[in-house]
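re: that chain from earlier
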Amino acid sequence: MPAQFFLKKEMVFKQKKVGRRVDPKDFMSQLVELFAAANGKGEIQQLLQAILTPDELEQIKLRWQIVQLLLENYPQRKVAQMLGISTSKVGRGSREIKFGNGIFQKLFARICEEK
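^ sequence. v structure.
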């Protein structure tokens, strides 16, 4: 499938002719559509491995480990110690839990219910 699969023709035309950048929000919605089109966990895993480098994937896995431990009420220092990372890295996950949109808590609760 061509790389321009998700681009609207008029966007490509404007980008080539006028040098305008395509709105990143449009790409975000297309990325969400891409993940929503995946059939099950296996395809999502394949998609993640195709889109992300091994290092990026490791960083995302680490972020999720941090969030899980924080949601299980481990103190930040203990999480840092358990994972062998700095407390500032743990702080990023903590801020998202405290001030974010609540998606981590929602999905974590859903996962816990399924177990």
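The CA atoms of residues 69 and 82 lie 9 Å apart.
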